[in-house]
Amino acid sequence: xxxxxxxxxxxxxxxxxIPLTILRATRNLKVPVYARGQNRREWLYVSDCAQAIxxxxxxxxxxxxxxxxxxxERMNIxxxxxxxxxxxxxxxxxxxxxxxPGHDLxxxxxxGRLNQLGWKAKINFKDGIEKTARWDMQNAAWLQKHYxxxxxxxxxxxxxxxxxxxxxxxxxxxxxxxxxxxxxxVRVLDNLATGR
Length: 196
Hints:
Number of strands: 9
Helix content: 40-55%
Strand content: 15-25%
Structural class: alpha/beta
């Protein structure tokens, strides 16, 4: 079992904080920040996450839980401000919005078990933001296309294609049956160990 902290980097859908901030800031649009931006997240660059997964698949023990965290915590407001500084955009673009109900104040992981396998995040947050901003700006058309879709459960349901994990289980089998009856194409991935 692998539990990574918040990932960021290339190809991330622009509904997430970092690509959304980059996309909106480069267009001089307001950047929404929940509440006062005090929510803390541990940020992990996507290539570091992929390397952690690869190492766990090679050396990890079946049944163990491995947390993959960078140890680099930031408040959301600090993340947004650092992106705005990097892009030379004014902090006046920040727009505080009503917080989501039940929004966790902090996510952080103890990655000790993974570190014992010899893994450590390589990309520091500053370098990761620079790489991400560069990629996002070079791929602005892709970001805009996916931002326009407003990837959401409503959008996904319109596509009529659904992946159900645990589809042979109690809840998954009922969900799969109901979706098929409603005309959805359902792919079931039940055994995560074998991929079937």
